[in-house]
TrEMBL record:
NCBIfam families: ogt
HAMAP family membership: OGT
Location(s), subcellular: Cytoplasm
Protein name, per record: Methylated-DNA--protein-cysteine methyltransferase
Source domain of life: Bacteria
Methylguanine DNA methyltransferase ribonuclease-like domain ranges (all copies): 12-88
Function, in words: Involved in the cellular defense against the biological effects of O6-methylguanine (O6-MeG) and O4-methylthymine (O4-MeT) in DNA. Repairs the methylated nucleobase in DNA by stoichiometrically transferring the methyl group to a cysteine residue in the enzyme. This is a suicide reaction: the enzyme is irreversibly inactivated.
Further information: This enzyme catalyzes only one turnover and therefore is not strictly catalytic. According to one definition, an enzyme is a biocatalyst that acts repeatedly and over many reaction cycles.
Length: 178
């Protein structure tokens, strides 16, 4: 197992409810919807899944402060994207998908099929959905912008209500169906 002695975690307030962030020494590693009390065990489970043993401690370090500022700026309309260091836990395929999802502009959407075509795997639509579902850093990696080929709002780890709120905030909801 890889040893990471400390994962700093904290909760921030947003218009769509509390969001918990976790950071390693390399960058943001997890974002979860909900209070730190409910998400801390989720962070620990995800770390174990990737063979990482670490202490998850409540700590508002400079990276969490920067993330809170950028997320706040996102919700006030000042910021359209993020420039935070990330420490992604996932397979090579998942990381490829997440990097492609990061390219979807604010206020726009892309289908799972479009993502599959863009990464050169046009038949991997279901695998794209699986990778999107495992995105450890929603909002910052904007998986809420990925929709069904028919324009339907489908699947979101934080719940379709959060996806709808994020797309509405960005002005991308007008052409979608549910």
């Amino acid at each position: 197992m890889t040893l990471r002695p400390l994962i700093a975690a904290s909760e921030i307030s947003t218009p769509i409810g509390p969001i918990s962030l976790a950071t390693s020494e390399k960058g943001i590693c997890f974002v979860e919807f909900g209070s730190l009390q409910t998400t801390r065990p989720i962070f620990i489970t995800k770390l174990k899944r990737h063979h990482v043993v670490a202490e998850v401690r409540e700590d508002r370090g400079p990276l969490i402060e920067a993330a809170e500022k950028q997320i706040s700026d996102y919700f006030t309309g000042v910021r359209k994207g993020f420039d935070l260091p990330l420490d992604l836990f996932g397979t090579a395929f998942q990381k490829l998908v997440w990097h492609e999802v990061e390219k979807i502009p604010y206020g726009s959407t892309a289908s799972y099929k479009q993502i599959a075509i863009n990464i050169g795997a046009p038949r991997a639509v279901r695998a794209i959905g699986g990778a999107n579902n495992k995105n450890p850093i929603p909002i910052i990696i904007p998986c809420h912008r990925v929709i069904g080929s028919n324009g339907a709002m489908v699947g979101y780890g934080g719940g379709l209500d959060k996806k709808e709120a994020l797309l509405k905030h960005e002005g991308a909801l007008k052409t979608l169906t549910s």
